[in-house]
Amino acid sequence: MNIGQVILVGAGPGDPGLLTLKGKQAIESAEVVVYDRLVSPEILDLIPEGAERINVGKASSNHPVPQEQINQILLDKALSGKRVVRLKGGDPLLFGRGGEELQPLTQHKVPFQEVPGITSAIAVPAYGGIPVTHRDFCSSLHIITGHQQAGKPLDIPFAPLVKTGGTLVFLMGVSALNNICEGLLQAGMDPDMPAAVVERGTTPAQRPILATLSTLPQTAREETLQSPSIIIVGKVCSLSPRFDWFDSLPLKGKQILVTRPRERAGTLSSRLRALGADVKEFPCIETVPYTPCPEMDRAVSQIHTYQWLVFTSPAGVSALMHFLEETGRDVRALGPIRLAAIGPGTARELKKHGLKADLIPPVYDGAHLGEALCEAGPTGRLLILRAQWGSPALTQALDRCQLSYEDIRCYETRYTCPNPEAVRTFLKGERPVVTFTSASTVRGFVKALGEMEHSHILAACIGAQTAAEAKAHGFSVITAREATIDALIQRIMEGEEYGTRT
Ligand code: SAH
């Protein structure tokens, strides 16, 4: 049997965006992933569906899987021919025992590679507004483990460290914080030396604590400091109040649940994350094109009998493209037909296929789309391609101006319910926000989570219809000023102070 290989990959310090491109590629092509506790769920989501996941997560002083056993797992899996990714927090070779895991591999001639990661020792201070070096303050950086073996004194050469005048960064130092500060003071460091701790750095839960060397232990106790945290001692800490960009992000720490179908959640989630939000994706609906779809087949075969093709969602566009491909056609089958899109998201989906929307209404909902089509004054029939629960507002508007149309159901919206327990826990936070980008996402959410009180949840809705559905289910509601993702994000940033205007 062929020998597999092991790729040691650094997952970065917490923010999933800090995984390297090479690390991402390795995970996406893994057959087995062996990972630690500090690796973020978004990174674990990159693991291919068929791959084996082995959690060997270690908590401090609690080693669920002993190191020897981890080494053995890596060896066994690689020897059985698998492509194994060993995923570790930060950089695998900095206090990560990566070296120990490589040794048995070399003995058995198992090929391996290393993909360095962004280490918490540098990234966490950076997210806390602390540059680890600065020409005005220091000329060296020292990264030290504060891990203390039970019953043994701390083995840190405090005197030479203090002498360097460099920035000192301690990892695994929460339990030994008092001893570390005491050791530095005894070695002659100025008690007023700026010092900081950054807890859960680079994540939405990041909490920086600023103090001085002499006050840090007490401040940390008062703030009930927890792991993982990084201790930074040095003049550079004084820059934090000026440089703390991450904690100043407008949605920092705000818990937001994104309920769009998985294939459409990405942009909204990543934009909210970039604004500091703690985002969880909960795709409680999925859209599935009808296949076969005899009605669509008939309509496309007679496409020249229609003057307009009308879409009320990007999913409708995807369903048509899927249909064309499945039936051995392409966009040329549509001929010179005119195209109407309910809003910019749908127009963008058309553009992906080289098609330009001829009409987008000024307000992005069914009623306005209908009115805009009436104003366009078509002389021929309209073909509407939408979901099985399409809103009647569009067809009512068309009926009013006596337009002739055919309304074809080309895809179905199904409710899904991945991991509801994790979502319930997430929603226990302080005033969580749930984004709803259609009335069906509201219904999907309510169905997935069953009976629960909704009034403590702030529903951020894309438009009036969605907001009406959310209100009917007892949510507190805010509504975007226009039905776009931009406006929805803007409205979330304004928060509730602007009232629950809809
Ligand atoms: N190899 C890792 C470090 C492993 S040791 C790296 O390069 O980052 C584990 C220690 O890293 C923790 O005890 C803590 O001190 C630090 N650490 C890791 N992630 C952290 C985070 N998000 N915030 C604060 N400290 C973190």
Quick structural gist:
Helices cover 34% and strands 21% of the residues. The protein is α/β, with parallel strands linked by helices. α12 links the parallel β14 and β15.
Can you characterise this structure?
By secondary structure, this protein is α/β, with parallel strands linked by helices. It is 34% helix and 21% strand. It has a five-stranded parallel β-sheet, with helices on both faces. The chain has a five-stranded mixed β-sheet with strand order 6-7-10-8-9, with helices on both faces. Strands 12-11-18-19-20 form a five-stranded parallel β-sheet, sandwiched between helices. It is elongated, with a radius of gyration of 28 Å. The protein starts with a strand and ends in an 8-residue tail after the last helix. The site of S-adenosyl-L-homocysteine has 24 residues, from helix 5 and strand 10.
Report on the biggest sheet: 5 strands, parallel
Work out the strand percent. Answer: 15-25%
Kindly state the percentage of residues in helix.
25-40%
> What is the rounded distance between the termini?
64 Å
Strand order of the biggest β-sheet: 3-2-4-1-5
Q: What structural class should be given to the helix and strand makeup?
A: alpha/beta
What is the residue-mean pLDDT, rounded to a whole number? 93
Strand tally, please? Answer: 20
User: Low-confidence parts, pLDDT < 50 over ≥5 residues?
Assistant: none
Count of alpha/pi helices: 19
The unique ligands bound to this protein are:
S-adenosyl-L-homocysteine
Oligomer description: single chain
